[in-house]
User: What shape does this take?
Amino acid sequence: MLPLNCKPLILLFESASHAYIVNKLLKCGGVFDKFKSSDGKWKETIIEDVRGLLSLYEAANLRVHGESILEEALAFTKANLKSLAMKSSPHLSKQIMNALDQPLNKCPPRLATRNYISFFEEEESRNETLLKFAKLDFNRVQLLHQQEISEVVRNGTNCMFRGNSVAAKNPKIVKALNFIGRLMDDLKTHKFEQLRGHCPSSIECYMKQHNLSEEAALKDFEKMLDDAWKDMHEELCSRPTAVPRDILLVILTLLE
Assistant: This one.
């Protein structure tokens, strides 16, 4: 079996594109099929390896359109992780719930790093030297980011020009980014907008337009958001982009 009980798959790579490439290699090599039995169902033995299940869940979150096996993997891992969270130790349960709430591909890299350091700090088998260097590196990069923010504030015009350049050269990526941002905002503010009562929320308008229940409308919005993330993965990771990928990742991080 593939050693899935490693640290979360995406954290092993420097960028989302590297993780995406590994995902595709695993898929092309039929690796995911090895976790299925002859009847096409996912092997129950996978559930016994909680950390492996978490890694499979994170890998499935990098799926794009048409990857049915990763769709199945996501449904399988989410269902079982929710159940395992209630049975696991407080430390492991916290990791599971954090991953279900915000998978790594939708989490700002620095926040993901900070969370992982906190989780690693509670591991009984932790390497104290590695932990110390991880904290030092995190603080060093944090300081660097603070200096960069100061520079950005002083050069706002240049940043606006860079943003316009990204929009012009990567229209599909920017469209996906904008769509993701709007949908996330609609889903998070729906209840609040209802309480305010000033005007109907986007979801309420959608319900009225399509004659849907609130539950059905929310499912539609979540499906549209899921499809937008797939568009993002395809554009960001599967082909060269006109603007350096590091800049696009910065924009994605700001969105997240």
